[in-house]
Design brief:
CATH superfamily of the largest domain in chain B: GroEL-like equatorial domain
Distance between the termini of chain B: 18 Å
Number of strands of chain B: 21
Strand order of the largest sheet of chain B: 11-10-8-12
CATH topology of the largest domain in chain B: GROEL, domain 1
Helix content of chain B: 40-55%
InterPro entries (chain B): Cpn60/GroEL/TCP-1 (IPR002423), GroEL-like_apical_dom_sf (IPR027409), GROEL-like_equatorial_sf (IPR027413), MKKS (IPR028790), TCP-1-like_intermed_sf (IPR027410)
Keywords (chain A): ATP-binding, Chaperone, Nucleotide-binding
CATH superfamily of one domain in chain A: GroEL-like equatorial domain
Strand content of chain B: 15-25%
Structural class of chain B: alpha+beta
Distance between the termini of chain A: 6 Å
Number of helices of chain A: 21
Organism (chain B): Cynoglossus semilaevis (Tongue sole)
CATH topology of one domain in chain A: GROEL, domain 1
Strand content of chain A: 5-15%
GO molecular function (chain B): ATP binding; unfolded protein binding
Protein name (chain B): MKKS centrosomal shuttling protein
Largest interface: A-B, 87 and 83 residues
Number of domains of chain B: 3
Oligomer: heterodimer
Shape of chain B: globular
Helix content of chain A: 40-55%
CATH class of one domain in chain A: Mainly Alpha
Number of strands of chain A: 19
Shape of chain A: elongated
Structural class of chain A: alpha+beta
């Protein structure tokens, strides 16, 4: 039972009504025999490969994913495409799951994942004539654990360039970032706009540096706050995408007065209703009650009290010179009218993300108790004005520069596109590119990686195995090594595998698989394979950091390393599946037919 | 568990542009939109199956919204164009026709999709830099001190919507009103950032278009006779106004969800009313002449204030609140228990009655220079009136766009032919092909696709079987009407599409679908005093061009469609 994939998802019906590709249509009964089972896996992965190849590389096209609700997504992202297929076969779902987990961790490489997996399985096809799948899986895992890191250290790292953040002056660093981003956007957004977008991203990251801190904390800042830091505008060409200083709050003014003569602008954030709601649900207000202390109370006095307290809040706001009020909720009409009389701007229904970013950037706290507003609640802004982007009106604020600034020069990203589908595609590519840069510059430690792996493989002793070579792995990940993009890593590693891995039979298989992937990449870039291969090798043989940096595009070795490990794990898990159990759950679609459950007899 | 339904696998289709059904639908859509294009475009009547309004239109925003295809691929193009229209109000059909033609021709040319995409982008960049450049032959500077060009721009927008059913004289009248209303919303006195005013549009059915008018200030519908008699007396001096944004009906909706328990012998309603009347007394004391409330006013309070000679307007609605606040300078009041601060009062210069058709309106005149005006549109029936109102709003938007970038483009197809001629002239296949990583023949093929698509749009302006020509000196677009086709060209042509050029001896023409040797179009007109008679919005058309090419590129780039069936 242990290696069984799709265990949690056994609520699969018995029928296989229609598959997206005819090759995926196979009878369940076939799975009970060992040899055709591998064929089956190969067929599934090849079908996925065929889908992914449509949008692979800079010349690949896009995929339109539509729902019956009318919603449409245009994408080149491998993960999006694969999850959109909604595959039914448990093995296919397991592969898609692995891809999803991998790309969530690194932001990149999902199409490469499928290509490498398919090539690797094709190599195994011949190897399986002499050995068993179980044996092969064991060797593969052993090799991935023990030897792969060492080979990368020996065969790839010497040819790369160390792009560690601390070492470089800023301009070299961002040159390197730009070269990493260009090939990423080429594959994710196509060639026409990749230069412009990578330039924009670079500029964006440069401005979002976190002062006096490790440069990668700027990446973290952008990654976590990305929803609040970008605005999408449809109906305008992509080339109008730009950066604007300060923060954009995605709500319109409920009350607006131009803040021309007030410098600087003072602002306060509210998270709840300022005018007290007199009666909560279930409360009872007794009107006309006679009391010695309160005399006769009429309902008018209650509402008068409510208004009075609101006026006190405004008096206190005016004493601080506040002229902008941001609120997470919709305020009462009296609140808006009093704000208008006090010539204050009001912005209602601001999202929580934006308010927390605002609080962080202005170093203030939202008002918790409306009766006690203090100086710590009052933010200082350089300006606060309306901003029209597309057909939407937003609020644009900026913060004064100071010594202890959280972010050096905060800017918001405006992403334009002719339709919502495109702006969404650009936004998700932006976010993934930052994820990719984070993996390059600040790979997470071995422990987190092992955690990821344990999800892929159900019950193996991952920790103990990986701890045998943690230093080497850490070395690969810590090196921040970059190599020229476009198949160089694959070619270098496949050569190194042949040189250093002769003791392991799987090393040769992996080498061949890598070579076939690099063939896909090279045909994309220059049409023919061998000259490109020669070019890469000559470039790398006369290596120096200058030679690497002179190329127009780079890719990160740590991303590739994680990719390779994920593929090896996925392949291992695929090989170790012996039988698939289809359990039957009675659904409301009243299928009376009982599923022909097959027994797992391996134990 | 019983509610769990397994997700169905998605349906996939490969290479949508090779799919006969999709191609057919794209061609159908192109023909439909092409036939509606321009001043002589054919009108479309839109019905729905449940007996709603019958809409008569040739406007892209209405047409495209009505079209819905089962093919999401077609919808993708549609929404892209609609996004442009919602942002710029103009040139929607231009963008749609250009986009669909580009897709069709690129497909026919047999170029690889990614090569097509690269080439289209390259030619687009060429066009955009030409249009923004100094020596652009198709751009006209707009001068705000002279309303002539503004009226031409407005007239081009209005006359391109034939569903308004206007005569030449009526088009001119409406164009002048649109420009007048636009100019009234511009504040003149304030330096720095300016806030534009508002034009409130009122439609009156059953009258001639020539009865349409523009008023400074606001016209508000009133139904009550009582206030009207008094209103006539209020024509001079600054009259104080108060504006309430909360309900004055005596309800306490803001109290919350709890329960109110009223003890016997307590008359809450009269207490509340007493409070409201307190408010009325203050208003009377402060000599307010106009009392406006967004929501409902208690009848007793209304009666009291009327008896004191105050004009009361209730249920104004949220749409009119902003103009009335801008007009009067009042600040909305929403507190009932405190005295109204003096700063909250606004002023109007005069209140009078206007009888427009069947409607009796209260005319609120602004005190000083105000940026609020009212456009009263008249037309013969409801359907055309609705289209006219839409067109006037679009015209206002186009004029506002011109504020940011005071420029216009030659209309009548001349910009399109000029751009095509410019691209052909600039063509340097050896250099560009190397830069674009394609062969020279691919480059030339891609150029023909792009130029033919532009020329197709110019040709689409004609719907009567005439011929489209381009002159070989200035590269403007000329139309030879079908009835003069027998005559030689020199005698049958009058003016070019935009009206800048006149037929003069020594001019040479060629038919638009024939090849001509590239030439550099001379921008100097024979007659320096000549003014173009058709102008298009620069900002809108530039964006439309970019959106059209980008959308076409997106369509060409899609290789696979996955349809979620859940």
């Amino acid at each position: 039972m242990s290696g069984l994939p799709g265990e949690n998802e056994s609520a699969v019906g018995d029928g296989q009504k229609h598959w997206i590709m005819s090759i995926l249509v196979e009878d369940v009964e076939m799975l009970q025999v060992d040899q055709p089972h591998f064929q089956h896996v190969l067929q599934i992965v090849s079908a996925l490969e065929a889908v992914v190849l449509r949008s692979f590389g800079p010349n690949g096209g896009q995929v339109l994913f539509t729902k019956d609700t009318g919603e449409a997504i245009v994408t080149r992202s491998g993960t999006r495409i694969l999850t959109a297929l909604r595959l039914k076969h448990p093995l296919a779902r397991m592969v898609v799951d692995c891809v999803w987990k991998h790309s969530r961790a690194t932001g990149d490489g999902s199409k490469n994942f499928i290509l490498l997996l398919a090539s690797l399985l094709r190599m195994f096809q011949t190897a399986l004539q002499t050995t068993t799948a179980w044996r092969l899986a064991y060797e593969l895992r052993e090799f991935g654990m023990m030897k792969l890191d060492e080979i990368i250290c020996l065969g790839v790292l010497p040819y790369g360039f160390c792009a560690k953040l601390e070492n470089d002056p800023l301009d070299t660093h961002y040159l390197c970032v730009k070269k990493l981003l260009t090939p990423f956007f080429q594959t994710r957004l196509g060639q026409t706009h990749c230069d412009m977008i990578s330039h924009l991203t670079c500029e964006f990251l440069m401005r979002s540096r976190v002062a006096n801190n490790h440069p990668s904390s700027g990446l973290h800042f952008v990654y976590t706050n990305f929803p609040a830091l970008h605005t999408t505008v449809s109906g305008v060409p992509v080339t109008c995408s730009r950066l604007i200083e300060g923060q954009v709050i995605h709500s319109d003014f409920a009350v607006h007065f131009p803040q021309t003569d007030k410098q600087p602008v003072k602002a306060v954030v509210f998270t709840q209703h300022v005018q007290p709601k007199l009666l909560g649900e279930g409360d009872i207000l007794t009107v006309g009650f006679e009391d010695q202390a309160f005399k006769k109370k009429s309902i008018v006095e209650f509402t008068a009290w409510s208004e009075k307290s609101l006026q006190l809040v405004f008096a206190s706001l005016q004493s601080f010179g506040v002229s902008v009020l941001l609120s997470a909720v919709k305020q009462s009409a009296a609140f808006l009218a009093l704000a208008a009389q006090a010539e204050m701007c009001v912005v209602e229904c601001v999202s929580e993300d934006e308010l927390s970013l605002f609080a962080r950037l202005s170093r203030t706290a939202p008002v918790l108790d409306c009766c006690a507003i203090e100086a710590v609640n009052v933010a200082t802004l350089t300006f606060c004005c309306p901003l029209t982007l597309g057909v939407q009106r937003y609020v644009h604020v900026a913060f004064p520069h100071s010594e202890q600034d959280v972010v050096v020069n905060l800017s918001s990203l405006v992403i334009c596109g002719s339709g919502k589908e495109q702006t969404d595609q650009y936004a998700s590519a932006f976010q993934d590119s930052i994820r990719m840069l984070l993996t390059t510059y600040e790979p997470r430690g071995t422990t987190t990686l092992s955690d990821e792996r344990t999800c892929l493989l159900t019950d193996e002793k991952t920790e103990s195995a990986s701890s045998s070579a943690p230093d080497l792995q850490q070395h690969v990940l810590d090196s921040c090594c970059v190599v020229p993009a476009g198949g160089a890593f694959e070619i270098l590693l496949s050569r190194a595998l042949l040189q250093h891995g002769d003791k392991y039979p799987v090393s040769r298989l992996l080498s061949d698989a890598l070579l076939s992937v690099s063939r896909h990449i090279c045909t994309q870039t220059s049409g023919r394979f061998s000259p490109a291969q020669a070019k890469v090798l000559t470039q790398c043989d006369g290596f120096s950091s200058k030679a690497v940096m002179s190329g127009s595009s780079l890719e990160s070795v740590s991303c590739k390393h994680i990719l390779l490990q994920s593929v090896l794990w996925c392949a291992t898990s695929l090989l170790r599946v012996d039988k698939i159990l289809y359990t039957h759950v009675v659904l409301n679609t009243d299928s009376q037919k009982s599923a022909g459950d097959s027994w797992d007899d391996t134990g | 568990m019983s509610r769990l339904v397994p997700k169905a696998p998605s349906a996939c289709s490969d290479l949508p542009l090779d799919n006969a059904e999709i191609c057919h639908k794209l061609i159908l859509l192109k023909e439909l939109l092409t036939s509606s294009f321009g001043p002589t475009g054919k009108l479309k009547q839109i019905h729905n199956n449940i007996g709603g309004h019958v809409v008569l239109t040739s406007t892209s925003s209405v047409l495209l919204q009505a079209i819905s295809s089962s093919q999401h691929f077609v919808n993708l193009i549609k929404t892209s164009i609609l996004n442009h229209v919602s942002r710029f109000s103009d040139c929607g059909l231009f963008a749609a026709v250009l986009c669909l033609t580009l897709v069709e021709l690129a497909k026919q040319s047999g170029l690889a999709e990614n090569v097509s995409v690269r080439l289209n982008k390259y030619f687009l960049d060429l066009c955009v830099s030409y249009m923004q450049g100094e020596d652009c032959g198709c751009r006209v500077k707009l001068d705000f001190s002279n309303s002539h060009n503004l009226i031409t721009l407005a007239r081009s927008v209005i006359s391109s919507k034939p569903a308004c059913m206007l005569t030449v004289q009526e088009v001119l009248h409406i164009s002048k009103l649109a420009v007048q209303a636009f100019l009234l919303t511009l504040p003149c006195d304030k330096p720095g950032t300016i806030t534009l005013g508002r034009t409130v549009t009122i439609t009156v059915e059953g009258y001639s278009v020539l009865n349409s008018e523009v008023f400074t200030g606001l016209l508000v519908d009133v139904t009550c006779d009582l206030c009207l008699n008094r209103a006539i007396n209020l024509n001079s001096g600054a009259l104080p106004v108060v504006v309430f944004s909360t309900s004055l009906a005596g309800d306490f909706s803001e109290l919350g969800e709890g329960i109110i328990e009223v003890l016997a012998g307590v008359d809450s309603e009269s207490q509340i009313l007493e409070q409201l009347l307190e408010l009325g007394k203050q208003v009377v004391k402060d000599d307010v002449k106009l009392f406006v409330c967004q929501k409902v006013i208690h009848p007793v309070l209304q009666q009291y204030m009327r008896s004191q000679g105050i004009i009361v307007m209730e249920r104004l609605g949220v749409n009119l609140m902003e103009p009335i606040i801008q007009l009067t300078g009042a600040q909305p009041v929403a507190t009932l228990h405190s005295t109204i601060p003096a700063s909250a009062y606004g002023k109007v210069m005069g209140i009078s009655i206007k009888q427009i058709g069947s409607k009796t309106m209260l005319h609120l005149q602004p005190t000083r220079e105000s940026v609020i005006c009212t456009l009263v549109l008249c037309h013969r029936n409801e359907t055309v009136l609705r289209e006219l109102k839409l067109v006037c709003q679009k015209t206002e938007h186009v004029l506002r766009l011109a504020l940011k970038d005071p420029a216009a483009l030659l209309g009548g197809g001349c910009t399109e032919t000029l751009l095509a001629a410019y691209i052909r002239h600039k063509c340097n296949e050896a250099e560009a092909a190397a830069q674009l990583r394609c062969s020279q023949s691919e480059y030339l093929l891609g150029m023909e696709v792009f130029c033919h698509s532009l020329e197709y749009v110019a040709k689409a302006l004609d719907h009567d079987g005439g011929d489209s020509l381009i002159d070989l000196n200035h590269a403007h677009h000329w139309n030879q009407p079908v009835e003069t086709m027998k005559n030689s060209l020199e005698y049958s042509l009058g003016n070019c599409g935009c009206g800048l050029l006149r037929n003069s001896p020594g001019m040479k023409w060629t038919y638009l679908n024939t090849a001509y040797s590239p030439f550099s179009a001379s921008s100097s007109s024979a007659d320096p005093t000549a003014q173009p008679r058709v102008l298009d919005s620069f900002t809108a058309k530039l964006n439309a061009l970019q959106v059209a090419v980008e959308t076409a590129n997106l369509a060409l780039d899609i290789r696979f469609i996955i349809q979620d069936l859940n």
